[in-house]
């Protein structure tokens, strides 16, 4: 997780900084900005993007939550398929593990 825990740590990151942290291409970060998935501001006369470290942290946290929910959904669907198969064969219903 990315946290701004040190007083010397920068508050804002460049697009290149974010790309390096996430291990993706600069264009991928620009796509995130363009779609509004990652919030940023434009500063300076050239209008360069700056991403606040807290915004990057919120984006990463949201991605973890999305992955967690997708896993739960897949597990629920797999459990349902097994339950239907067991019911068809006249067996007791299994209880799926909870995360």
UniProtKB/TrEMBL annotation:
Domain named Helix-turn-helix: residues: 12-63
Keywords noted in UniProt: DNA-binding
Single annotated GO MF: DNA binding
Domain of life: Bacteria
Protein name as annotated: DNA-binding protein
Lineage, broadest ranks: Bacteria, Bacillati, Actinomycetota, Actinomycetes, Micrococcales
């Amino acid at each position: 997780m990315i946290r701004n825990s040190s007083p010397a740590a920068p508050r804002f990151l460049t697009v290149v900084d974010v790309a390096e942290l996430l291990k993706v291409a600069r264009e991928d970060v620009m796509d995130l900005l363009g779609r509004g998935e990652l919030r940023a501001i434009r500063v300076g006369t050239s209008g360069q993007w700056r991403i606040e470290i807290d915004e990057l942290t919120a984006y990463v946290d949201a991605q973890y939550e999305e992955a967690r929910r997708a896993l739960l959904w897949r597990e629920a669907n797999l459990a349902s398929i097994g339950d239907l198969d067991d019911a068809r064969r006249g067996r007791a219903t299994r209880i799926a593990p909870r995360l």
